[in-house]
């Protein structure tokens, strides 16, 4: 199985640890972490750490400051096929209050993507995607790329590969979910789901009901993540809730991407839905216990899986 992740708008995440920082005040930071960011990149790193050998990262990236990314790709055993364009990849600022675990994000816009770079990525995908591929698209879209871009890729590749998975937000997510051809798998968080349906979802039954509307449109699996409240994994014949184990939270950055990695790997391995829910929730719980994106040893994942609480709705 070949995993191809597309990160259209990667970022170098600059994470400032500033306990008890106050908005509008001069605050003291304790340290700065610099990591490679972007949903598809984080998914790929988790897949590499899980032991998958054929993992590819692609998208667009500035050629002036790509060292942070190339080091991460080499460390985690993923193949770098990013299209380089002139300039600096954007930085995103994250401020973490280590005393309460809260994270504040300041996400900057990305580089303007020229038309020739868009074509290069399309040419690469055309020659790379085949019937043994899992295609994962994640994150925001940079300037110069239309909001319909992910939806267009879904329409092109849904029937040409094993699974197409989308984890995005805002206008890009709306375009994907309103298109005629939908992905095999979507993973909105609860806030994105409520934005899609236009109202607050009051309880689990309403969340599952809304997820099943996506299934009626052609989605095979909808995963609704809810932070510390766990996630719903919904198929036409099953709705499984996975509650994560209680762990010490260092950073929530990349938790959802780790969950996506667990989902797509589970699908590729032919796992049942409960195993997918347990594994992907364990991946997420493992990631939030440290800075950056990485999975621990398999023994740690197995222990976390045993602590995931599973429940179901009819």
Automatic annotation (TrEMBL):
Reaction equations catalysed: beta-D-fructose 1-phosphate + ATP = beta-D-fructose 1,6-bisphosphate + ADP + H(+)
SUPFAM superfamilies according to UniProt: Ribokinase-like (SSF53613)
GO cellular component, one term: cytosol
Alphabetical keyword list: ATP-binding, Kinase, Nucleotide-binding, Transferase
Pfam families: PfkB
Domain Carbohydrate kinase PfkB: residue ranges: 12-298
Alphabetized GO MF terms: 1-phosphofructokinase activity; ATP binding
Superkingdom as given in the UniProt entry: Bacteria
GO biological process terms, semicolon-separated: carbohydrate catabolic process; small molecule metabolic process
Family: Belongs to the carbohydrate kinase PfkB family.
Protein function: Catalyzes the ATP-dependent phosphorylation of fructose-l-phosphate to fructose-l,6-bisphosphate.
Protein name per its UniProtKB record: Phosphofructokinase
Naturally occurring in which organism (per UniProt): Suttonella indologenes
Lineage: Bacteria, Pseudomonadati, Pseudomonadota, Gammaproteobacteria, Cardiobacteriales
Chain's gene name: lacC
């Amino acid at each position: 199985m070949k995993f191809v992740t597309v990160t259209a708008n990667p970022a170098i995440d600059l994470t400032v640890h500033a306990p008890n920082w106050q908005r509008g005040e001069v605050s003291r930071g304790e340290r700065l972490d610099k990591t490679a960011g972007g949903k598809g990149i984080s998914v790929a790193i988790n897949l590499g750490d899980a032991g998958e050998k054929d993992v590819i990262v692609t998208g667009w990236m500035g050629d002036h400051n790509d060292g942070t990314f190339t080091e991460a790709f080499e460390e985690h055993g993923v193949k770098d096929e990013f299209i380089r364009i002139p300039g600096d990849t954007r930085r995103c600022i994250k401020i973490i209050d280590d005393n309460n675990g809260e994270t504040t994000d300041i996400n900057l816009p990305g580089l303007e993507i020229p038309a020739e770079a868009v074509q290069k990525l399309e040419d690469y995908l055309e020659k790379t995607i085949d019937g043994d591929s899992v295609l994962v698209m994640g994150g925001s879209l940079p300037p110069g790329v239309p909001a319909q871009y992910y939806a267009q890729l879904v329409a092109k590749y849904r029937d040409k590969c094993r699974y197409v998975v989308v984890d995005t937000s805002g206008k890009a997510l709306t375009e994907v979910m309103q298109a005629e051809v939908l992905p095999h798998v979507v993973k909105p968080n609860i806030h994105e789901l409520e934005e899609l349906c236009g109202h607050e979802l009051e309880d689990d039954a309403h969340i599952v009901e809304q997820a099943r509307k996506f299934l009626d449109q052609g989605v095979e699996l909808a995963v609704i993540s809810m932070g510390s409240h766990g996630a719903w994994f919904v198929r036409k014949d099953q709705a499984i809730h996975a509650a994560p184990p209680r762990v010490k939270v260092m950073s929530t950055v990349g938790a959802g991407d780790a969950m996506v990695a667990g989902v797509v790997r589970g699908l590729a391995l032919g796992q049942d839905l409960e195993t997918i829910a347990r594994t992907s929730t364990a991946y997420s719980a493992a990631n939030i216990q440290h800075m950056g994106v990485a999975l621990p040893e398999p023994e740690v994942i197995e222990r976390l899986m045993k602590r995931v609480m599973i429940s179901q709705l009819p």
